[in-house]
Each structure stands twice: as C-alpha cells, then as structure tokens.
Amino acid sequence: MDVPPPVANALTLSWTFGFSGAVHSLASHDVRSPGGERSAIFYTSSHTGIIYDYKTKTQQLLQGHCNKIQATVISPDKKWIATADAGPDNVIVVWDSITGTPVKTIFNPHQNGTAALAISEDSMCLASLSQVDDVGEQELSLWEWTVESEGALYTSLVPGVVSSDSAHTSVSFDPADHRVIVTNGPHKVTFWTWENFQLKPYNPVLSKRDSGVLQSSTLISSLFLPDTTTAVTSTTSGDLILWDAVPKQERPEDEEEDPTNFPEFVETNPLKSMVKSIRLSEGQISYLGTTMDKYLVVAGEDGCVRFYDFSLRIMAWYEDLNAGPVTSVSFASNVPGNVDDSASDFVCPDFVVGTATSYIIGVECALFQEIEPENRRGAVLVQGIGDHTPCIAAHPTMDRLVIGVADGTLQLWDFMTRTLLMVQDLMSDGGVKQRPQSCQFDGAGRALALGMTSGMLKVSDPDSLQEMASFTNGDMPITTIRFSPDSSWLAYADTANFVYVLNFAIIEEAPQPEDDDGSTERSAPTATWNYVGRIKSHTKAITGLEFTVREDGRLAMVSVAEDRTLVEYDLSEATPGTGIKLRGEPTKIEQIAVPTACMWHPLLGGDFEDRVVTANNEFKFKQWNADNKSCRRTSLCPTYGGPLTSLQTIPAINPERNQFGPSPYVVYSTAEKVIGIVKIPFDGNPHKAMGLIAHPTAISSITVSGDGRFVMSAGGEDRCVNIWQISTATLDRKCEEAAAKAEGLGSAEMYSELIDEETKNDLIDFFYYAQLRTQGEDSMEERKITGLVALSELPNLVRSLGYYPSEEECAAMIAEVYYAKFTETGETCDTIDLDTFIKLYVNHKSVFGTSKGEIEDAFSSLGAGDGRFSWGKLVEMLKNKGENIAGDDLKNIMKALVGGGVDGVNPASLMNAAVFSDKILGFDEDGGAMDDVKENFNETGLTDLEV
Q1: Which of the listed residues 16, 157, 498, 891 has the most CB atoms within 10 Å of its CB?
Q2: How confident is the model at residue 615, as a pLDDT?
Q3: With 0-12 CB in 10 A as exposed, 13-18 as middle and 19+ as buried, what is 310?
C-alpha cells in the first residue's frame, strides 16, 4: 500500500465522495499552469468546495464553510470562485481557482445566509440574494469584493417578498452593463439598477394575460442575452419567457405599471414588458446559460442540453447523455483558437454537465456530429451519491468502502485509487427495492451484512455484492449490526428494541453409501448463517451493541439503550432451540442521563479487568466492571458537539505479530456535525481529545479503515462521504506540550482550565477547610496539614462548590477513588489529595447545571398533568420516591432554602415548576440562585412550613 504523506492535524480531509449544487468548468488553454493547459472542474460536496483535475484524478479541497454551500459562481475568466452558505456564522468566500486559497471572506453577509450569487462580467462585483430573514424579508446586496471595505456597497429589500414561499432564488448581471441586474422569485421578475448611488428595483409592466402566465407556473432562473436588450426566464412547465423594452404604443391596453417602481428609474430606463412565452421543453428548464455570446443554452428535467440562437431557433442538441435531469452546464474558456468555426456549422467549447442523480458528465462539442447514440453520451467525470447515505462500512483487510444509499443501491469503492468498483441494486425476492439502513463487514472480510429499513437482513459477498443469505425476522428498520471478533456470530438491533443473533456454522455433509469399488464419497462442507433467535431486551431505543472476547477467552456481548440499562447476553448455549438468554438481570446504569453509545475498553498493557465504556447525553464517559457492573470511573467526554453517538477503536499494527490490534485511540462522532479522536485512558484531560466539523448537519455513520490510517464519515442528508487521514502523533504532541506547560504545577493544572478562576480558588479553600474539619474545627491541638482529605468529606466538598450529586453518584465518586489502584496493586485508598480532587470534580460535575426546563420535565414525569402539585403531595413524594429524603433532613433542607422563622405550609397549597424553581430553589432567569430566597418564598402565600 502507498503510505500517505504526514499531516499536521490529527484528522485531515483527504478526499470527498459526493456532488451537490452546480458544476463549473475550469478547463482552459490559457491559465497559470505548466504547459499552459488545464483540465479541471469545480463543484461542491456539502460544505466543501472541490477543484477536481479529471486527468490526474486529484482533488483540491476548499474548506472554510461550516454550513452547506448553497450558491457558487465563477468569474468569466475562470480565475475566481465565489462560494456562499446559509445558516449560523455564514460567509461568502472568494477563492483563487489556481492555488485554492481564499482571497476574500465576507463574514455574516446576511442574517440567515445566502440563497444565490452572481458575478459581474469584469469580475469586480458580486451580487448576493439573502435567505429570508426572521421577519420574512429578503435583501439583495452588491459587494465590491476587491476593495478593502466593510459591508456591502448597496443593499435593498426585494419587493413583494413576505416569506420563503415568495423569496427570489436567481440573480444575474447584464453582461453589457454590470449596473443592471435581474432577479426572480417563483412568480415575479424584478430588474435592478445601482446607478445614482442607490440599488433600485423595477418590476415589469404586465397585462392581465402576462400576470396569468407568471402565476400559472413557477419561475426558475433569469438572465440577459449578450449584446441585446432582452432578458429570458425559465419555468417549471418548460416555457421560456422573454422580456424586452416595448414602445408604449405597442403594449396591450390593459398593461399596468407596478406602483412600487421608482419614478426616476422609469424616467431613465427603458420599460421592460413580457414579449412572449414559448414552450421549449416538456419538463422543467433547470438551467439557462449562454456561450460564445451567440448561443442560448437550455437544459433541464428531460436530461437534454439544447443550443438556440437568440431568435430561439434550435442549432444543436445533446439528447443521449442518459445521466438524469440536468441541473447545471458549464463551458471551457472561450480562448481564441480554442474552437474552429470553419469545421462545422455548429461549434462550441467543450462543456460539463451536472445532473440531479449526482453525475458530472464531460461532453465534447464534436459529439453532436456522432451518428450512433452510444457515442453521444459523453464521459463520466464524477459519480456522486444519488440519495442520502444512511450507512458506510470499510473492509477490514482491503482499501474498500461500501456506501449504502437510500435509493436502494450499494456503491463499492476503492478509496485509495478513488475507483468505483461496483454498483448493486438491492432487490427483494418480490422485486421490491430494499433500502439499506446499516451495514458492516465481518472481521475476516468474508461477508458483508446489510440491515434494511424493512427489517430484512442480507448477508452478501464482499467482492461481488451478491446476496448469500437473507433473513426476515422483524419488520422494523435495522439500526445496528455487529460481528463477533472471530466472525462466527452476528448480532443486530432494530427500532422495535429487539436484538437478533445469528451463528456462522460449518455443516459437514453425511457420507454417501459405498460405491462398487468400496470407496465412500463425502461432499465438501457447507458454510451457512443460522438464525438463533431474538430477544426484546430493552424498552427504549438501543444505542449501543458490542462484542468482545473477555480476558479469560469467553465471548461476551452487551447492549445499552435509552432506558438507561446495560444488558449482557449469554451466548455460551445459544441455539435455535434455546434462543437467546441474558447473563444476569439488566443493570440500571444511569439515574437521569441517557446512554448514547458504548464500547468495550481495549485490553492494553496494564489492564487487569474487562470494562464496558458508555457515553451519555451529559457528556460523560463511564467505565463499568464487566462482571459486577459497578462504575469504575466517570470522566468528561469531548464536548465539541452534541453527545457522542458512536465510538470505534483505531487499529494499530503489532510489530511482534505483524497484525493489527487495538490502539489507545478512539474515533467518535456526534449526532450532528462533529467527529474526532480521544486518547485512552479516558480521564477527562481536555488535551487528549480533538474534534472538527465533518459535515454541516447530521452524521449518519462513521467507519475506520482496517489499517487504522483513515476514518470515513457519512453526512446522511448531504449525500457526502468524507475520508479523513488519521495522525495520532499530532494528538500525542498536543498532550506532551500541555503536560510540559503544566510541569511543576501538578497534573491537575490542565484540568483546571475547565473551571473559572473563582471556582478554582473556592475549590482550594474548601479542600483545606475540609482538612480542618477532619481534625475537628474546635480542636486545640497542633494543626497537621497532610494534603489529604477523608473520602467521607467528598459529598460535602462537591456540594459546597455548587454541584449536588445524588447519593448514588456520591457513592460512585467515593468508590472510584477507593478502588482506583485496586486492580493493579490490590490496595484501596480512603483519602484523596488536591490534584485527584480537581480531576474528580471536573469529570463528575454537570456540564450544563440544572435548568428550569429540566425542573418542568421532572414535574411532568412525576405525574403533574397540569404541571401542578399540592405541597403535601410533593412532600410525600420527596419522602418516599427515588432516593427518599427523611423528614428531618427535608425540614433542614427547606430551612436552609427559605430561612428560619417559617414554620409551616398549607398542604393544599399548589406548587408548580415555576414556583418551585423561582421561589424555593431561587433560580433567576438564567438558572442561577437568587439571594433573597426567603422573601420570594413568602411572596407565594405559602406561609406555614410543615414537612
């Protein structure tokens, strides 16, 4: 295998599969490149721009957007590329098309981002149409991007836009006069001018017939025809509408001017009217363009590209591309000598076509002269992904990647050569297309398991993708598939919360009767997957399912779910006759948090016990003893995105055995946007983890290559799969630099970065005060500051800092310190030092604290249908439900909250979440405590405190 060059980041984007938006040709015979020739195209894949050289098959990746790119445009001379996105922190970026470097970034050009872009003929100006803002308005802005200035040159509201339904989606400059612009929405065309230091809109005068034409179909895009006064607009019905200046005496009598037009504009500009509407296609016209200043190019839903002269007489047509509906067309540069007018009646530069099915097709002008249809199809330059990608899987021993596509197809790629090896349609026996939801290779690379949205499981050949076996034992989507390490077991889970198990068996055929010569024939053994059974082991969605081989050699399988339980399965005697049984009872592992992922802790050097690691929605890793299911450690998860939803170890080469085994690095992903790497041991050290925005929205699946060099991520709805090169050495350097910086300050110095300075000072003060309490606050003996605090003081310490764990969580903290070294030395510890306490506090404390919303959810969960309880009922539940609070303790708690002198509360008084949080707990609007709690409590009218 080729070894990729070293990279500077722990994860570096090396390739992206996918195509969305428009394609632009950068092909030219007059560019700043060796040899003076270039064969490249530009297109987007999700939030990444791609300059792809289709001769050398290399990608230049333009990264700078955190949202999906919504609009792109290139300058007429192919030197500049402009991209724009929509969403929070949106930007417009202008790139050098040769170097791929950004030369201008416009931050937050519009409130919600950009819907469309245009560039003037001289490349000096950009026009941007905004997404509709929060009050339903849209604006058109003009930018002199080559000038060092803040803000737009001009900005004006688009008339008639009141919501996204009426928003304009197309903008174009007049090539003959960049002071004139045209935009259009679904039923309205607006012309603009920016002379006299204002950007002014003008709506054409329309007759009743013209208005009816605009309302009867949806407008797609508009542009000006070069060297004419005519503009054209395409529609979803296949019509082309022509606009031009018409003498007033020749207009229909019922034609009326829009009263919102500026009078001075009308006086100085020719009034445009609808000249005519002509049907050019039976389907939607998605693309309008011009080339060589002599042809109008039309393409759309019928998959054809047609050329017309400016009198709308057809000149040429490319109708055999067979690549689906056309969404964009782009031509190579019109360099003098690049085309030969004498060679044919019709000539044009070579062009590229982008389609709705995510193909990019290269088309030579000469194909128009070909006789046979198969010779007129062009060349596939890029095959993207035609639908969203719910799942991906990397082959364990080869450079192959399977992409499951929601349109019912599988793509098999060689991800190192970037070659599409095969596309397979997934059809059931009844001829109905199956849609993949999950996929996984077995560890030996001999089978590919596919879980469908219909509940069917397919086992396919990993080379041919042909089905070897199929099972339909459920009717709900299969979300997770796992193979055992020795590939002899397969388990999968579906959205009905069932876990299914199959076993790979070798069946020996019975010997045949002896032949006449006394010999006995025996058939070759048959390998097959046998269905063992299923079990509904959880009451809510399953979020993790994992196999391992225990240290004693026993196969083990566990699952976790949103019902907060950890379940272990007994596979030792699982057969089709006995089905699947659990090993022990399900273990409740969380009180409030919800498990979102799990993995088996790899057995690295120095490990003496098997552990299951879970991640939860409170950004915590928890490590559970595999035998007694006790919590061994709680640590902070990476918090770069949402809660972690997938955890996968990165394989590493074992030099002694020349085999791949587990490494101390784990790849993770969140439900949206972020993937990253975290280093084992999980201890909350913020320098041992990194994350980046891999996709602008949801992440549907991640997978790691068998050699541990790459991690692949699928963006689901964005139809994009990214390949990231892994450099664990970069993460190691980051850890070493942080450790060197904290040297001499205590190993907890790097953890203290996660708490503010005031809390840090309080923490130190309270820790030393706890040492005084241990010896006795009133003791007259000489004080002995040992730097150690008894574990019994831990609950008081963390609560003094504003973190209020439950009794179960306190017990887990104490046990974590008590047994910290037990598996290594057999010794326990009943004290804690300051460094350890800082780590413990940072890892256990809540990331977000308690909010009013959570208190409202708690009231609702307790059964308050209208959100209210009587005070007496609430007190009764506090005494008897969950971790019940004894009467004296509850009374002391209430006195601490509302102060002394309040003796009772009427049990019939009603209490809701707002009163409880504001008046009892004393939360302000931001969720913090208020100073005068007693006064607020008495304002409720609850004057008698009695618990």
Answers
A1: 16
A2: 98
A3: middle
Tokens in use for 660? 């791949």
Burial-class residue 675 by CB neighbours within 10 Å (0-12, 13-18, 19+). Answer: buried
Q: Are 322 and 378 within 8 A, CB to CB?
A: no
Domain count, the chain: 3
- pTM of the entire predicted model: 0.89
CA distance 596 to 646: 8
Distance of CA 823 to the CA centre of its chain: 39
Please tell me whether residues 813 and 870 are part of one structural domain.
Answer: no
Nearest 5°: phi and psi at 832?
-140, 140
Domain holding 79: CATH number?
A: 2.130.10.10
- Nearest Cα neighbor of 166 from 142, 201, 131 is 131
- Residue 262 burial by Cβ neighbours in a 10 Å radius (0-12, 13-18, 19+): middle
What pLDDT is recorded for position 741?
A: 77
918's CB contacts (< 8 A; 6+ apart) are: 930, 936
Residue 217 falls inside a structural domain: yes
Same domain, 231 and 107: yes
> Which is nearest to 402 in space by CA: 3, 48, 712?
712
Instruction: Report the distance separating Cα 451 and Cα 233, nearest Å.
Output: 46
User: Distance between CA atoms of 891 and 944, rounded to whole angstroms?
Assistant: 12
Q: Would you state the structure tokens that stand for residue 329, as one six-digit string?
A: 């067309």
Is residue 668 a part of any domain in this protein? no
Residue 769 shares a structural domain with residue 798: yes
Over residues 771-789, the pLDDT tens digits come to: 877 666 665 666 666 789 9
**pLDDT of 901-938, one tens digit each?**
334 566 777 778 888 787 777 775 544 433 333 333 33
Taking only the tens place, the pLDDT of each residue in 871-909 is 788 888 888 888 888 767 777 777 777 665 334 566 777
840 and 870 together in one domain: no
Helices (H) and strands (E) in the chain, counts: 13, 61
Q: Give the helix, strand, coil percentages of the chain, each rounded to 5.
A: 15, 40, 45
Q: Report which of residues 263 and 569 the model is more confident about.
A: 569
| 160 and 213 share one domain | yes
> What pLDDT does residue 659 have?
58
- DSSP annotation of 842 reads H
Return the ∠ at Cα 436 (arms to 434 and 440), rounded to 5°. 135
Element (H, E) at 179: strand 177-184
Full DSSP string of 860-921:
HHTT-TTSEEEHHHHHHHHHHSSS---HHHHHHHHHHHH-TT--B--TT-EEEHHHIIIIIS
Specify whether the backbone of 601 is left (phi greater than 0), alpha (psi in -120 to 50) or beta. Answer: beta
The residue out of 276, 295, 314 marking a domain boundary is 295
Distance CA 451, CA 44 (A): 30
**Whether 195 and 84 share a structural domain:** yes
118/242 same-domain check? yes
Cα 412 to its chain centre, rounded Å, is 22
Q: What is the CATH number for 757?
A: 1.10.238.10
Domain span at residue 108 reads: 20-295
State the Cα–Cα distance between residues 530 and 526, nearest whole angstrom: 12
Residues 143 and 203 placed together within one structural domain of the fold: yes
Average pLDDT over residues 26-46: 76
Residues 6+ apart with CB under 8 A from 622: 589, 613, 614, 615, 616, 631, 633, 634
Three-state DSSP at 807 gives: helix
Identify whether 230 is part of a domain.
Answer: yes
